[in-house]
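Hi everyone,

Forwarding the result from last night's run.
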Amino acid sequence: MKTKVFDNGLVVKHRKSAVILELGKDNNTDYRFVFYFKTLEEFAEFRDYTKEVATSIWTNLTPRIAESEGADYWEYYDRQLDNNGYINLFKDKICIERPSLECERLYQFNKRRMESFLYDLLHIEGLVQ
């Protein structure tokens, strides 16, 4: 599994069918985390890496607006942990509520949720390329 750790402590991993966000540091006491991007370059690095790994997994990935609850990345159900995780994207930070204290995994994207997340990453106000 390929992994990249960002300066703000967020870890992006990917495998054959998922992109996974994890904690960079061991923290088993908190559910909620805020990962700030201090500069536009840090945000661009996260955006570009996320897009790169997602398109390497799903060759026909198309960033697009979420048109259903199943496509909206805001909430996801983690079957293994039997609980929901949540994520909110802002132009200078990502806020994540992980599904369980048992695991360092914060969020796991499937293809459709990644498409809507990438759409927002690429079109976030003030950071449009």
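The mean pLDDT is 89.

Cheers,
N.
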